[in-house]
Amino acid sequence: MSARGTDWIPRFRALEAVRRVVLDGESLTVSLAEETEGLAAREAAWSRALAYATVRWYLRLDAMVEGMLERPLKPRDAVIRVLLCQGLAELFHFGTPDHAAVRETAELARTLQRPGAVPLVNALLRRALRERDVMGAAMNRTPSLRYACPPWLVAGIRSAFPDTWEAQLEASTLPAPMTLRVNLARSSREAMQRRLREAGHAVTEHSSGPAALVLETAVDVERLPGFSEGLLSVQDAAAQWAARLLAPRSGERVLDACAAPGGKTGHLLESANGDLQLTALDVDGARLGRVRDNLRRLGYPAAMVVGDLARPDAWWDGALFDAILLDVPCSATGVIRRHPDIKLLRSPRDIGALAHRQRQLLETAWTLLRPGGRLLYATCSLLDEENEGVVAPWLAATPGACCETLDFPGGVARPVGRSIPLGSEGMDGFYYALFTRGA
Protein backbone atom coordinates (compact mmCIF):
# COMPACT_ATOMS: atom_id res chain seq x y z
CA MET A 1 0.00 0.00 0.00
CA SER A 2 2.88 2.38 0.63
CA ALA A 3 3.84 2.22 -3.05
CA ARG A 4 0.46 3.69 -3.93
CA GLY A 5 1.05 6.86 -1.94
CA THR A 6 -1.88 8.19 0.05
CA ASP A 7 -4.52 8.80 -2.66
CA TRP A 8 -6.36 5.64 -1.62
CA ILE A 9 -6.95 6.83 1.95
CA PRO A 10 -9.87 9.26 1.32
CA ARG A 11 -11.59 6.65 -0.86
CA PHE A 12 -11.11 4.00 1.80
CA ARG A 13 -12.47 6.28 4.53
CA ALA A 14 -15.50 7.11 2.35
CA LEU A 15 -16.06 3.40 1.76
CA GLU A 16 -15.95 2.66 5.46
CA ALA A 17 -18.49 5.40 6.15
CA VAL A 18 -20.84 4.12 3.44
CA ARG A 19 -20.38 0.51 4.54
CA ARG A 20 -21.45 1.46 8.06
CA VAL A 21 -24.62 3.03 6.67
CA VAL A 22 -25.54 0.26 4.24
CA LEU A 23 -24.50 -2.82 6.21
CA ASP A 24 -24.74 -1.62 9.82
CA GLY A 25 -27.59 0.88 9.61
CA GLU A 26 -25.59 3.76 11.06
CA SER A 27 -26.09 7.45 10.37
CA LEU A 28 -23.95 8.87 7.57
CA THR A 29 -23.30 11.99 9.64
CA VAL A 30 -21.88 9.95 12.50
CA SER A 31 -19.91 7.47 10.39
CA LEU A 32 -18.35 10.20 8.23
CA ALA A 33 -17.37 12.30 11.24
CA GLU A 34 -15.53 9.33 12.71
CA GLU A 35 -14.01 8.07 9.48
CA THR A 36 -12.66 11.47 8.36
CA GLU A 37 -11.19 12.37 11.73
CA GLY A 38 -7.50 13.15 11.35
CA LEU A 39 -7.59 13.65 7.58
CA ALA A 40 -6.28 16.83 6.02
CA ALA A 41 -9.06 19.27 5.07
CA ARG A 42 -8.84 18.51 1.36
CA GLU A 43 -8.84 14.73 1.88
CA ALA A 44 -11.76 14.95 4.32
CA ALA A 45 -13.76 17.05 1.84
CA TRP A 46 -13.12 14.47 -0.92
CA SER A 47 -14.17 11.62 1.37
CA ARG A 48 -17.37 13.41 2.33
CA ALA A 49 -18.25 14.26 -1.27
CA LEU A 50 -17.69 10.68 -2.44
CA ALA A 51 -19.61 9.17 0.47
CA TYR A 52 -22.55 11.54 0.04
CA ALA A 53 -22.77 10.87 -3.70
CA THR A 54 -22.62 7.12 -3.14
CA VAL A 55 -25.38 7.16 -0.52
CA ARG A 56 -27.48 9.69 -2.45
CA TRP A 57 -27.51 7.44 -5.55
CA TYR A 58 -27.10 4.09 -3.80
CA LEU A 59 -30.41 2.50 -4.76
CA ARG A 60 -29.78 3.23 -8.45
CA LEU A 61 -26.12 2.20 -8.31
CA ASP A 62 -26.92 -1.01 -6.45
CA ALA A 63 -29.54 -1.92 -9.07
CA MET A 64 -26.87 -1.46 -11.74
CA VAL A 65 -24.51 -3.75 -9.85
CA GLU A 66 -27.28 -6.33 -9.46
CA GLY A 67 -27.90 -6.27 -13.21
CA MET A 68 -24.23 -6.89 -14.00
CA LEU A 69 -23.43 -9.63 -11.50
CA GLU A 70 -23.57 -13.10 -13.04
CA ARG A 71 -23.95 -14.71 -9.62
CA PRO A 72 -24.68 -13.29 -6.16
CA LEU A 73 -21.76 -12.29 -3.99
CA LYS A 74 -21.17 -14.33 -0.86
CA PRO A 75 -22.42 -12.71 2.36
CA ARG A 76 -18.85 -12.14 3.56
CA ASP A 77 -18.22 -10.12 0.40
CA ALA A 78 -21.11 -7.70 0.94
CA VAL A 79 -18.57 -4.90 1.30
CA ILE A 80 -17.47 -5.53 -2.30
CA ARG A 81 -20.97 -4.66 -3.46
CA VAL A 82 -20.72 -1.40 -1.52
CA LEU A 83 -17.31 -0.83 -3.11
CA LEU A 84 -18.75 -1.34 -6.61
CA CYS A 85 -21.45 1.24 -5.89
CA GLN A 86 -18.84 3.71 -4.72
CA GLY A 87 -16.79 3.08 -7.84
CA LEU A 88 -19.83 3.74 -10.03
CA ALA A 89 -20.56 6.94 -8.08
CA GLU A 90 -17.04 8.18 -8.77
CA LEU A 91 -17.27 7.26 -12.46
CA PHE A 92 -20.64 8.91 -13.03
CA HIS A 93 -20.67 11.88 -10.66
CA PHE A 94 -17.10 13.16 -10.48
CA GLY A 95 -14.46 14.33 -12.93
CA THR A 96 -11.96 11.59 -12.10
CA PRO A 97 -10.43 10.07 -15.27
CA ASP A 98 -12.14 6.75 -15.94
CA HIS A 99 -8.98 4.68 -15.81
CA ALA A 100 -7.94 6.20 -12.47
CA ALA A 101 -11.35 5.67 -10.87
CA VAL A 102 -11.45 2.03 -12.03
CA ARG A 103 -7.87 1.32 -10.94
CA GLU A 104 -8.19 2.92 -7.50
CA THR A 105 -11.53 1.27 -6.79
CA ALA A 106 -10.18 -2.14 -7.77
CA GLU A 107 -7.13 -1.66 -5.59
CA LEU A 108 -9.39 -0.93 -2.63
CA ALA A 109 -10.55 -4.55 -2.87
CA ARG A 110 -6.97 -5.55 -2.13
CA THR A 111 -6.89 -3.14 0.81
CA LEU A 112 -10.02 -4.88 2.11
CA GLN A 113 -8.15 -8.19 2.07
CA ARG A 114 -10.21 -9.35 -0.93
CA PRO A 115 -7.56 -9.67 -3.67
CA GLY A 116 -9.73 -12.21 -5.49
CA ALA A 117 -12.33 -9.46 -6.05
CA VAL A 118 -9.94 -7.18 -7.93
CA PRO A 119 -10.69 -8.71 -11.38
CA LEU A 120 -14.43 -8.59 -10.70
CA VAL A 121 -14.33 -4.91 -9.74
CA ASN A 122 -12.22 -4.10 -12.79
CA ALA A 123 -14.53 -5.98 -15.13
CA LEU A 124 -17.82 -4.62 -13.80
CA LEU A 125 -16.71 -1.00 -13.71
CA ARG A 126 -15.37 -1.20 -17.26
CA ARG A 127 -18.60 -2.82 -18.40
CA ALA A 128 -20.59 -0.05 -16.71
CA LEU A 129 -18.60 2.53 -18.70
CA ARG A 130 -19.43 0.74 -21.96
CA GLU A 131 -23.12 0.23 -21.17
CA ARG A 132 -23.93 3.27 -19.04
CA ASP A 133 -26.30 4.83 -21.60
CA VAL A 134 -28.31 1.64 -22.10
CA MET A 135 -28.46 0.88 -18.38
CA GLY A 136 -29.32 4.48 -17.57
CA ALA A 137 -32.21 4.55 -20.03
CA ALA A 138 -33.61 1.33 -18.55
CA MET A 139 -33.33 2.69 -15.01
CA ASN A 140 -35.03 5.96 -15.90
CA ARG A 141 -38.25 4.18 -16.78
CA THR A 142 -38.80 3.42 -13.08
CA PRO A 143 -39.10 6.50 -10.84
CA SER A 144 -37.61 4.81 -7.79
CA LEU A 145 -34.46 3.96 -9.78
CA ARG A 146 -34.39 7.19 -11.75
CA TYR A 147 -34.25 9.19 -8.53
CA ALA A 148 -32.63 6.57 -6.27
CA CYS A 149 -35.57 6.74 -3.87
CA PRO A 150 -37.34 3.73 -2.31
CA PRO A 151 -40.71 2.91 -3.93
CA TRP A 152 -42.69 3.46 -0.72
CA LEU A 153 -41.30 6.98 -0.41
CA VAL A 154 -41.90 7.77 -4.08
CA ALA A 155 -45.53 6.70 -3.57
CA GLY A 156 -45.88 8.81 -0.43
CA ILE A 157 -44.50 11.96 -2.06
CA ARG A 158 -46.62 11.38 -5.15
CA SER A 159 -49.74 11.03 -3.02
CA ALA A 160 -49.02 14.20 -1.05
CA PHE A 161 -47.95 16.28 -4.05
CA PRO A 162 -49.59 14.91 -7.22
CA ASP A 163 -48.52 17.96 -9.25
CA THR A 164 -44.92 18.39 -8.08
CA TRP A 165 -43.80 14.96 -6.90
CA GLU A 166 -41.34 14.44 -9.73
CA ALA A 167 -39.76 17.87 -9.33
CA GLN A 168 -39.29 17.11 -5.64
CA LEU A 169 -37.67 13.76 -6.36
CA GLU A 170 -35.36 15.51 -8.82
CA ALA A 171 -34.50 18.06 -6.12
CA SER A 172 -33.75 15.22 -3.70
CA THR A 173 -30.83 14.11 -5.88
CA LEU A 174 -29.06 17.48 -5.63
CA PRO A 175 -26.86 18.77 -2.79
CA ALA A 176 -28.63 21.29 -0.56
CA PRO A 177 -27.52 24.92 -0.50
CA MET A 178 -25.81 26.44 2.54
CA THR A 179 -28.34 28.96 3.82
CA LEU A 180 -27.59 31.42 6.60
CA ARG A 181 -29.80 33.29 9.04
CA VAL A 182 -28.82 36.81 10.03
CA ASN A 183 -29.54 37.85 13.62
CA LEU A 184 -31.67 40.87 12.76
CA ALA A 185 -31.68 42.01 16.40
CA ARG A 186 -27.98 42.79 16.10
CA SER A 187 -27.27 43.34 12.42
CA SER A 188 -28.95 43.59 9.02
CA ARG A 189 -28.94 41.30 6.02
CA GLU A 190 -27.30 44.00 3.93
CA ALA A 191 -24.48 44.53 6.45
CA MET A 192 -23.77 40.81 6.75
CA GLN A 193 -23.89 40.39 3.00
CA ARG A 194 -21.19 43.07 2.68
CA ARG A 195 -19.02 41.41 5.32
CA LEU A 196 -19.32 38.04 3.64
CA ARG A 197 -18.44 39.44 0.23
CA GLU A 198 -15.48 41.34 1.65
CA ALA A 199 -14.27 38.01 3.07
CA GLY A 200 -14.44 36.48 -0.43
CA HIS A 201 -17.75 34.61 -0.20
CA ALA A 202 -20.25 34.74 -3.06
CA VAL A 203 -23.61 35.27 -1.41
CA THR A 204 -27.16 36.14 -2.48
CA GLU A 205 -30.35 37.10 -0.67
CA HIS A 206 -33.03 34.44 -0.38
CA SER A 207 -36.51 35.52 -1.39
CA SER A 208 -38.33 33.83 1.49
CA GLY A 209 -37.58 36.31 4.25
CA PRO A 210 -35.51 39.24 5.51
CA ALA A 211 -32.88 37.19 7.35
CA ALA A 212 -31.92 34.54 4.79
CA LEU A 213 -28.70 34.51 2.76
CA VAL A 214 -27.43 31.73 0.50
CA LEU A 215 -23.74 30.97 -0.05
CA GLU A 216 -22.75 29.94 -3.54
CA THR A 217 -20.15 27.55 -2.10
CA ALA A 218 -20.48 25.79 1.24
CA VAL A 219 -17.63 26.45 3.66
CA ASP A 220 -16.61 25.59 7.20
CA VAL A 221 -19.01 27.62 9.30
CA GLU A 222 -16.20 28.74 11.60
CA ARG A 223 -14.68 30.65 8.68
CA LEU A 224 -17.72 32.89 8.30
CA PRO A 225 -17.35 36.45 9.60
CA GLY A 226 -19.93 37.10 12.28
CA PHE A 227 -20.60 33.45 13.13
CA SER A 228 -18.60 33.34 16.36
CA GLU A 229 -20.15 36.70 17.36
CA GLY A 230 -23.67 35.28 17.05
CA LEU A 231 -24.55 37.43 14.05
CA LEU A 232 -24.98 34.47 11.70
CA SER A 233 -26.32 30.95 12.01
CA VAL A 234 -26.75 28.12 9.50
CA GLN A 235 -30.43 27.39 8.90
CA ASP A 236 -32.43 26.48 5.82
CA ALA A 237 -34.87 29.13 4.64
CA ALA A 238 -37.83 26.77 5.19
CA ALA A 239 -36.84 26.24 8.83
CA GLN A 240 -36.60 30.00 9.31
CA TRP A 241 -40.37 30.23 8.96
CA ALA A 242 -40.90 28.55 12.35
CA ALA A 243 -39.95 31.56 14.47
CA ARG A 244 -41.62 33.96 12.05
CA LEU A 245 -44.93 32.08 12.17
CA LEU A 246 -44.98 31.62 15.94
CA ALA A 247 -43.91 35.29 16.30
CA PRO A 248 -42.97 35.36 20.00
CA ARG A 249 -43.47 38.69 21.76
CA SER A 250 -41.22 40.29 24.34
CA GLY A 251 -41.78 38.90 27.82
CA GLU A 252 -43.78 35.86 26.70
CA ARG A 253 -43.37 32.45 28.27
CA VAL A 254 -42.35 30.19 25.37
CA LEU A 255 -41.74 26.43 25.13
CA ASP A 256 -39.52 24.96 22.43
CA ALA A 257 -40.81 21.46 22.99
CA CYS A 258 -38.34 19.36 20.97
CA ALA A 259 -35.50 21.84 20.91
CA ALA A 260 -32.35 20.02 19.76
CA PRO A 261 -30.15 20.93 17.96
CA GLY A 262 -31.27 24.48 18.70
CA GLY A 263 -31.46 26.37 15.41
CA LYS A 264 -35.10 27.31 15.90
CA THR A 265 -34.51 27.96 19.63
CA GLY A 266 -31.95 30.58 18.76
CA HIS A 267 -34.20 32.14 16.14
CA LEU A 268 -37.08 32.43 18.62
CA LEU A 269 -34.81 34.33 21.00
CA GLU A 270 -33.45 36.52 18.23
CA SER A 271 -37.01 37.43 17.29
CA ALA A 272 -37.46 39.10 20.69
CA ASN A 273 -33.80 40.07 21.20
CA GLY A 274 -33.58 37.55 24.01
CA ASP A 275 -36.52 38.99 25.97
CA LEU A 276 -38.40 35.70 26.39
CA GLN A 277 -38.96 33.29 29.24
CA LEU A 278 -37.96 30.41 27.01
CA THR A 279 -37.76 26.77 28.03
CA ALA A 280 -35.76 24.53 25.70
CA LEU A 281 -36.95 20.97 26.27
CA ASP A 282 -35.53 17.80 24.79
CA VAL A 283 -35.63 14.16 25.76
CA ASP A 284 -31.94 13.69 24.84
CA GLY A 285 -29.51 15.34 27.23
CA ALA A 286 -26.54 15.05 24.88
CA ARG A 287 -28.45 16.73 22.06
CA LEU A 288 -29.64 19.41 24.47
CA GLY A 289 -25.98 20.21 24.96
CA ARG A 290 -25.90 21.37 21.34
CA VAL A 291 -28.75 23.77 22.10
CA ARG A 292 -26.75 25.12 25.01
CA ASP A 293 -23.70 25.62 22.77
CA ASN A 294 -25.81 27.42 20.15
CA LEU A 295 -27.33 29.79 22.67
CA ARG A 296 -23.97 30.46 24.30
CA ARG A 297 -22.62 31.56 20.91
CA LEU A 298 -25.69 33.75 20.32
CA GLY A 299 -25.50 35.18 23.83
CA TYR A 300 -29.11 34.46 24.83
CA PRO A 301 -30.39 32.77 28.00
CA ALA A 302 -32.93 29.95 28.20
CA ALA A 303 -33.95 27.30 30.69
CA MET A 304 -32.53 23.94 29.56
CA VAL A 305 -34.67 21.00 30.57
CA VAL A 306 -34.06 17.32 29.84
CA GLY A 307 -37.44 15.66 29.70
CA ASP A 308 -40.12 13.99 27.63
CA LEU A 309 -42.88 16.37 26.51
CA ALA A 310 -45.35 13.49 26.78
CA ARG A 311 -44.60 13.22 30.54
CA PRO A 312 -44.88 16.81 31.79
CA ASP A 313 -45.28 15.80 35.45
CA ALA A 314 -41.57 15.02 35.48
CA TRP A 315 -40.39 18.48 34.39
CA TRP A 316 -43.21 21.07 34.14
CA ASP A 317 -43.72 23.69 36.87
CA GLY A 318 -47.45 24.05 36.17
CA ALA A 319 -47.35 27.53 34.60
CA LEU A 320 -49.00 27.63 31.17
CA PHE A 321 -47.13 28.86 28.11
CA ASP A 322 -48.06 31.77 25.84
CA ALA A 323 -46.52 30.10 22.78
CA ILE A 324 -45.26 26.61 21.99
CA LEU A 325 -43.10 25.46 19.11
CA LEU A 326 -43.75 21.76 18.54
CA ASP A 327 -41.18 20.67 15.98
CA VAL A 328 -41.97 16.98 16.29
CA PRO A 329 -39.62 14.05 15.64
CA CYS A 330 -40.40 12.91 12.09
CA SER A 331 -39.15 10.91 9.11
CA ALA A 332 -37.10 13.94 7.95
CA THR A 333 -37.99 13.11 4.36
CA GLY A 334 -38.00 16.83 3.58
CA VAL A 335 -34.26 17.06 4.28
CA ILE A 336 -33.04 14.04 2.29
CA ARG A 337 -30.78 16.34 0.29
CA ARG A 338 -28.82 16.91 3.48
CA HIS A 339 -29.28 13.40 4.88
CA PRO A 340 -29.52 10.99 1.93
CA ASP A 341 -29.07 8.03 4.26
CA ILE A 342 -32.75 8.53 5.17
CA LYS A 343 -33.56 6.78 1.88
CA LEU A 344 -31.70 3.70 3.11
CA LEU A 345 -32.47 3.77 6.82
CA ARG A 346 -36.16 4.66 6.93
CA SER A 347 -38.94 2.15 6.22
CA PRO A 348 -42.75 2.34 5.92
CA ARG A 349 -43.02 0.79 9.38
CA ASP A 350 -41.39 3.87 10.88
CA ILE A 351 -44.09 6.25 9.67
CA GLY A 352 -46.97 4.79 11.67
CA ALA A 353 -44.93 4.81 14.87
CA LEU A 354 -43.83 8.38 14.25
CA ALA A 355 -47.39 9.53 13.56
CA HIS A 356 -48.57 7.94 16.81
CA ARG A 357 -45.82 9.74 18.74
CA GLN A 358 -46.59 13.04 16.97
CA ARG A 359 -50.28 12.86 17.93
CA GLN A 360 -49.30 12.07 21.52
CA LEU A 361 -46.95 15.07 21.67
CA LEU A 362 -49.52 17.38 20.09
CA GLU A 363 -52.20 16.37 22.59
CA THR A 364 -49.84 16.90 25.52
CA ALA A 365 -48.47 20.22 24.28
CA TRP A 366 -52.02 21.56 23.93
CA THR A 367 -52.63 21.01 27.65
CA LEU A 368 -49.63 23.25 28.44
CA LEU A 369 -50.92 26.21 26.40
CA ARG A 370 -52.82 29.07 28.01
CA PRO A 371 -56.17 30.29 26.60
CA GLY A 372 -55.38 32.70 23.76
CA GLY A 373 -51.97 31.08 23.27
CA ARG A 374 -50.39 29.88 20.03
CA LEU A 375 -49.03 26.44 19.12
CA LEU A 376 -47.04 25.84 15.94
CA TYR A 377 -46.87 22.22 14.77
CA ALA A 378 -43.89 21.68 12.46
CA THR A 379 -42.25 18.80 10.63
CA CYS A 380 -39.57 18.42 8.00
CA SER A 381 -41.60 15.58 6.46
CA LEU A 382 -43.14 15.38 3.00
CA LEU A 383 -45.64 12.71 4.01
CA ASP A 384 -49.30 13.38 4.72
CA GLU A 385 -49.34 10.72 7.43
CA GLU A 386 -47.11 12.91 9.62
CA ASN A 387 -48.67 16.23 8.69
CA GLU A 388 -52.38 16.60 7.95
CA GLY A 389 -52.86 12.96 8.90
CA VAL A 390 -51.89 13.94 12.45
CA VAL A 391 -53.29 17.44 12.87
CA ALA A 392 -56.59 17.21 10.98
CA PRO A 393 -58.19 14.48 13.16
CA TRP A 394 -56.73 16.10 16.28
CA LEU A 395 -58.23 19.47 15.29
CA ALA A 396 -61.64 17.89 14.67
CA ALA A 397 -61.56 16.25 18.09
CA THR A 398 -60.25 19.25 20.09
CA PRO A 399 -62.75 21.88 21.31
CA GLY A 400 -61.36 25.41 21.36
CA ALA A 401 -58.59 24.74 18.83
CA CYS A 402 -58.59 27.10 15.87
CA CYS A 403 -56.31 26.65 12.85
CA GLU A 404 -54.88 29.89 11.48
CA THR A 405 -54.51 30.52 7.73
CA LEU A 406 -50.86 30.60 6.72
CA ASP A 407 -49.53 32.34 3.65
CA PHE A 408 -45.86 32.63 2.73
CA PRO A 409 -43.77 32.35 -0.46
CA GLY A 410 -42.87 28.89 -1.66
CA GLY A 411 -45.62 27.21 0.34
CA VAL A 412 -48.66 25.23 -0.73
CA ALA A 413 -51.98 25.66 1.10
CA ARG A 414 -53.46 22.55 2.70
CA PRO A 415 -56.91 22.08 4.20
CA VAL A 416 -55.05 22.25 7.50
CA GLY A 417 -51.72 24.08 7.53
CA ARG A 418 -49.25 24.78 4.75
CA SER A 419 -46.51 22.68 3.12
CA ILE A 420 -43.22 23.68 1.56
CA PRO A 421 -42.38 21.23 -1.25
CA LEU A 422 -38.80 20.02 -1.34
CA GLY A 423 -36.80 22.30 -3.62
CA SER A 424 -39.40 25.08 -3.72
CA GLU A 425 -37.32 28.27 -4.01
CA GLY A 426 -34.34 26.08 -3.10
CA MET A 427 -35.77 25.20 0.33
CA ASP A 428 -36.05 21.97 2.28
CA GLY A 429 -39.46 20.31 2.54
CA PHE A 430 -41.47 21.43 5.58
CA TYR A 431 -44.99 21.48 7.00
CA TYR A 432 -46.48 24.04 9.38
CA ALA A 433 -49.84 24.32 11.11
CA LEU A 434 -50.55 27.17 13.55
CA PHE A 435 -53.26 26.79 16.20
CA THR A 436 -54.68 29.24 18.69
CA ARG A 437 -56.51 28.24 21.83
CA GLY A 438 -59.89 29.75 22.57
CA ALA A 439 -60.59 31.35 25.93
How would you sum up this structure, described in words?
- By secondary structure, this protein is α/β, with parallel strands linked by helices.
- The chain has three domains: 2-141, NusB-like (N-utilizing Substance Protein B Homolog, Chain A), CATH 1.10.940.10; 178-234, Sun protein, domain 3 (Alpha-Beta Plaits), CATH 3.30.70.1170; 241-437, Vaccinia Virus protein VP39 (Rossmann fold).
- The protein contains 17 helices and 13 strands.
- The strands form two sheets. Strands 5, 6, 7, 8, 9, 10, 11, 12 and 13 form a nine-stranded mixed beta sheet that branches. A four-stranded antiparallel beta sheet has the order 2-3-1-4, with helices on one face.
- The longest helix has 22 residues, at 118-139.
- The chain is globular.
- The mean pLDDT is 96.
